[in-house]
Amino acid sequence: MKQKNIAALIIALSAIGFSSAASAQYVGPTTQATLTSIAEILKHPVDDQPVTLRGFIVKKVGNEKYIFSDGTSEIRVDIDGKHFINKKVDEKTKVEIRGEVEKDFLSTPEIDVDVLTLVN
To answer: Residue 77: which residues within 8 A CB-CB, separation 6 or more?
Structure first.
């Protein structure tokens, strides 16, 4: 009987340890998206590099594809429609985009946008 109670106690304590590990949260240093320029990205594109850019969406060129300009150059960006919900954006609206550089072999780099924010 005592062995069953000890086994049950060990199982219970193990379950508590596993559940607290599942809710753990990393709070140390991370790779932050750096505020950079399109000219720098085009000069040295690095696939999956996190970036933050400020500028203007100057035109739509395809399904969820746009041309973005920061004043140094222009780059194609991929922005899902969900990022435009409750936002009115035209070529005169300054925005900040956060995302990653997408550099496929033999194609020009583009930005896969994760966050679109209006800038005042």
So the answer is: 57, 65, 66, 67, 68, 97, 99, 110, 111, 112, 113
Torsions phi, psi for 83 (to 5 deg):
-75, -15
- What sign does the CA torsion over 91, 94, 83, 111 have? positive
CA dist 56 and 92 (Å) reads: 7
This prediction's pTM: 0.71
Determine contact, residues 113/98, Cβ cutoff 8 Å: yes
Question: How far apart, in whole angstroms, are the C-alpha atoms of residue 113 and residue 77?
Answer: 7
Distance CA 79, CA 58 (A): 13
Stretches where the chain sits below pLDDT 70 are 1-35
